[in-house]
Design goal:
Layout: E1 5-9, H1 14-25, E2 29-34, H2 37-47, E3 50-53, H3 59-69, E4 75-78, H4 94-121, E5 125-129, H5 142-161, E6 168-174, H6 182-186, H7 191-196, H8 207-219, E7 228-231, E8 236-238, E9 241-242
Parallel strand pairs: 1-2, 1-4, 2-3, 4-5, 5-6, 6-7
Antiparallel strand pairs: 8-9
Bound molecules: 2-hydroxyethylsulfonic acid (8X3).
């Protein structure tokens, strides 16, 4: 059997990197795509994959990624994206919102569009990394909840559009994940604020937990489509209902 190919965007850290590692363990040749070349080259060396420098907001990078991936792609993990800020609508920084839309929505759509022929040829799986933010809005979440809700709608449209094609469309929606950079980026490098997100939560999810879920969705038999996987830590009953234990 020929080697199965997986493309992971946003592979330089967090859920993307953990997923690249996990899929390599599962026998995939993983194409690690991200902006930070040094990081993905190191990762590709570690897991025997390939690195493609790719900013998903740049059409020329997306074209290069599709060319590197070749004729057949078994799995696309469209993971690149993230949150910027927690501004209320009244104070929102629209430049940050535009960046979020460009990466989380257009970047995901562009990755899918470019790789769709290769995914269809291979009877492959598209997995997007959404968020529980797509399901329930919260104060300060309008920008991020909005983009993740857009991804969710896009996946629903895509599944309908591809109903007669041999390609599957899956969305993994994580809740609270203590990953390398998610909260740090969201709070513009403010480590203390980033840490507060997880304060008192005994066991937030890890990026490896989500990588497990993605690997599951990507490796079920070909007739099985996992439409959506919503994954939260046990301590998080809803986005705003988190069990926190005293920290001091
Ligand atoms: C991250 C989950 O609750 O911070 O995607 O929006 S949340």
């Amino acid at each position: 059997m020929s080697t199965r190919i997986a493309v992971v965007t946003g592979a330089s850290s967090g859920i993307g990197r953990a997923t690249a590692r996990r899929l390599a363990q599962d026998g995939f040749e993983v194409i690690c795509a991200a902006r930070r070349t040094d990081r993905i080259e190191e990762l590709a060396r570690e897991i025997g994959g390939r690195a493609v420098t790719c900013d998903v907001t740049r059409p020329e990078d997306i074209a290069r990624l599709a060319e590197a991936a070749g004729d057949r792609v078994d799995v696309l993990v469209a993971n690149a994206g993230g949150a910027l800020g927690t501004d209320y609508v009244a104070q929102a920084d629209f430049a940050e919102w535009r960046t979020m839309y460009d990466t989380n929505v257009i970047g995901v759509a562009a990755s899918i569009q470019a790789l769709l022929p290769a995914l269809t040829r291979a009877h492959g799986v598209i997995v997007t990394v959404g968020s529980v933010a797509a399901l329930t809005a919260y104060e300060g979440g309008a920008g991020y909840c909005g983009v993740k809700a857009a991804v969710r709608s896009m996946m629903q449209s895509l599944r309908l559009e591809l109903w007669d094609q041999p390609v599957r469309v899956c969305e993994v929606d994580p809740g609270m994940v203590k990953s390398d950079e998610f909260s740090l980026v969201r709070f513009h490098g403010d480590r203390e604020r980033a840490e507060q997100v997880y304060a008192g939560v005994r066991q937030p999810l890890t990026q490896e937990d989500i990588a497990d879920c993605i690997a599951y969705a990507a490796t079920v038999p070909e007739h099985v489509n996992i439409d959506q996987l919503v994954v939260r830590p046990r301590a998080q009953a809803a986005a705003h209902k988190v069990f926190r234990e005293p920290t001091d």
